[in-house]
Amino acid sequence: MISIRAARPGDAVAIAHVHVESWRSTYAGIVPDEYLAGLDESLRVKLWQEWLGSGAVVLVAERKSEIVGFVHAGKIREPIETADAEIYSLYLLRDAQGRGIGRALLTELSTSLDSQGFSSLGLWVLERNRSRGFYENCGGRLSASKVIEIGGARLMEVAYWWPDLASLRVLS
């Protein structure tokens, strides 16, 4: 059984673990190996301690009292169509993928963002991310692209857009 809840300050270690492990599994063969090997959970813990106190929405997915995924979102940072909110990150451990957990996180996220007055949502994802079809399956509309650099590699990133948060509340 999966439960979705708001993250608490004490979740920083578990969220950092999911963040680093999911990067290593999701971006292997896409992001340079040296960059992935150099990801440091202890540094991520410090970042997550800051982010958890920033006022952004952070929700975690728990299975048997273990955090197996999270979503981090808030005010849009770079324009994507008419989106006023942005998913900064959404990651699941590999063995938690394909079980409806990502959809459950998006559904709960839409409710949280709506309660804060947001109405539409965007997100950036690496074009070669094998999981990006998930966003399309959840109704995201391909909107834009740009080149970014990670670990010295130039990579294409694409934006997805949901013009109406309510469309995410009917996913599960």
Describe what this molecule looks like in 3D:
The chain has about 170 residues and is an alpha+beta fold. The protein has one domain: Aminopeptidase, CATH 3.40.630.30. It has five helices and seven strands, in the order βαααβββαβαββ. It has a seven-stranded mixed sheet. The longest helix is centred in the first third of the chain and has 15 residues. It is globular. The mean pLDDT is about 95.
How would you write the strand order of the largest sheet?
1-2-3-4-5-7-6
What's the overall geometry? Answer: globular
Note the main sheet. 7 strands, mixed
Distance linking N and C termini: 14 Å
Topology, number of strands: 7
Give a brief description.
By secondary structure, the protein is of the alpha+beta class. The chain is built from 5 helices and 7 strands; from the N terminus they run βαααβββαβαββ.
Task: Write the topology of this structure.
Blueprint: E1 2-6, H1 12-26, H2 33-37, H3 41-52, E2 57-63, E3 66-75, E4 85-92, H4 101-115, E5 121-126, H5 133-137, E6 141-150, E7 153-162
Parallel strand pairs: 4-5
Antiparallel strand pairs: 1-2, 2-3, 3-4, 5-7, 6-7
Helix pairs in contact: 1-3
